[in-house]
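Exercise 4. Each item below gives a protein and its sequence. For each, produce the structure-token representation.

Item: GPI ethanolamine phosphate transferase 1 (Myripristis murdjan).
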Amino acid sequence: MRTITFFLVGLAVHVVFFISIFDIYFTSPLVHGMTPQMVPLPPPASRLVLVVADGLRADSLYTLNPNGSSRAPYLRSVMEERGTWGVSHTHVPTESRPGHVALIAGFYEDVSAVAKGWKENPVEFDSVFNESRHTWCWGSPDILPMFAKGASGDHVYTHTYPAEEEDFASTDASRLDSWVFAQVKLFFQSAKSNSSLKASLNEGQNVFFLHLLGIDTNGHAHRPMSQEYLDNIALVDSGVAELVSVVEEFFGYDGRTAYVFTSDHGMTNWGSHGAGHPSETLTPLVVWGAGVHHAQRVTDPQSYSDGYLQDWKLEHFRRVDVNQADIAPLMASLIGVPIPVNSVGVLPLLYLNNSDQFKAESIYTNAIQILEQFKVKMTQKKETTLSFFFTPFQSVISHALEGLVYYHTYDRFFLGCSVVLGFVGWTSYVILLILKTHAGLRRPPSHTAQLCVCVTVVITVFLFIQSSPVTYYIYCLLPVPVWYSFRSVSWLLGCLCLAAFPLMPVVGREPNIHLNVCVYISTRFGHLCTLMYETQQMLHVAVCAYVPNLTHSSLQQKQGLPLFSQIISWTTLGSSMLVPLFSSTRLFHRLLSIFLSLTATYLLLSTGSEALFPPVLSWLMYVWINIEQEAMLAQGVSGRQEYLNHFVCGHSLLCPLPLSSFDPASVYCFLTVFNPFIMGGLMMWKVIIPFIIVMCTFETIQVATQLSSRSVSPSLLFSFLLSCPQHFFFLVQDYGSWLDIGTSISHYVIVMSMTIFLMLLSVVTHILTSRRLILWKRRKMHFT
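Answer:
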């Protein structure tokens, strides 16, 4: 009963601190209650055309072909003659939704949107579309609906193709962009005979938004250096040229249309995005039309040291870089609508071709709009200091932005310290409990109860004065009873990496299908060494080694995903955890069956060196079993032949384990082999498979070293010990970089998820090793 209570308390502690990540980091930066601000002067443009080429890298557009010609001749001519160009710097995560939110709403994505898969609006926000008179959108069903849903009123109109068209295995993804251009052309043609639509189009403050997904889809399927990706850029360029012609003709060449061409994010050389590599964060920006500066030639060296100007042959044309969020106030100023109230973008004045008065009014409006956010945020934190408002006007915006970041992270350090103290206290408590229960140690009488009561009162009063939410009380008060439960215990544990696999890149390689064949050969050799057991599973592994090669060949020939590959993949995934249950419960036979079944699944997820990981890990596990057997024999304990032992299915998972009954070296090996999976960064199922292999091996060691008769899997207990030093290591490591959200959140979520997951996985592996399914029983034959 005490063990069950300890398990439940430990699980509750880890769940509480896991939830704390959402209060520390996943809080919305958005505030409400601001008054919209707009430039009081007439705008230079009546309408704006926004074209976003999803997944287009800056260098892919700006770099010339080997023969000196441009991949996008129309846009190149705009850059060199009648527009202003630059590089738009995006922020992580470099995904489609965050990129479009920055472009159209002017702020970097609300991190709380991760809870809804970056698809929905967890908190409503303002945007240029919402402030416009009318907005017409064409493109992907994944992007357009979120801006229509968040708009007040019914003035954002979306036209999307079916979601099934977004197929990475498609023969030609550029048809998505062709569809958009065709629909826009039909729209303006129909408007000529539709008087009400024509009247709406001729009003001011209208926006036309074209979302082009073809380049991103071709980049994922064929990579950015492929001919399909480059051909799609040429198609978009010709489509933009035709679009400008259609729009100008419809409005009678009145010179009142502004055009913005950009991208939401870039893409790595291997066809992925989401991180902060320059290939993902550098996107093109080309602006021309009403109210925009024409191209300006320069003779002096420009203040960019990245070398791109020379590579792109654009060193003689002025380059104006911006942050991605700066595009929103630029578009708002061009058509005379209020800047989105949640925008943190700074108006890039070098793009505007207007009077000095208009520029001054525009930047003043931008400053007031950002200060409105700061005042609301400051009011929420009950601060009254406004001293920096009296700084020179040119620094008001930068100070306000710094203030927004300060108040958004106001409680982060305090909560982080509370969580660190809680984890250190819980670690020490677990160690003390083990020593007290199994080593006969007793704690001396303590007289710190009064001190703990005083600390609790002080923390409660402090949180009450701050009007903190209830969850803050839990995070801050939980360490008090935990620290009260022990006096002084120190803990130090080093973890070794498993060979070189964590150091190998998990992305960015050319597919190496031959490695899958090597895995099959090595697996086949191991199979022959076991007297031809599990023949059917070996054939299954051979088929799974062939499937990636078949799929790769089919996608290269643009034939889509083969039906055979789909059937094998889904069948393998669904049966991988069931097939071992039909094998013998003899130790080595069951382990071999588990290894073959999981290797088959792993091969389907591998195209490179990681395919060799399961055989190497399984061999290491085999060595570990033999080391444990030899250690038992060296101690004079009568060992049993592990190959002949059976897994036992009757022992309890929650029985206490005598501390003197197992070798500390086993604990060290257990923790050592687990650490590579924490930092490997593979796909989720590819992480689960090594966990299962290691934990099944640990179950085997219990049986082979005669521990199962007195206790059961200590992995449940070790899951706490495994997590504790890593909690402390990761949290202290990130102590000085709380603002490095990507690193801190990743480490914290990985460790917390692994701890909770490991406790539950111990039950699964116990069932996997000890249970057996029998479809039918052999009938006994009696002879007379």
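Check: The first strand starts at residue 47 and ends at 53.
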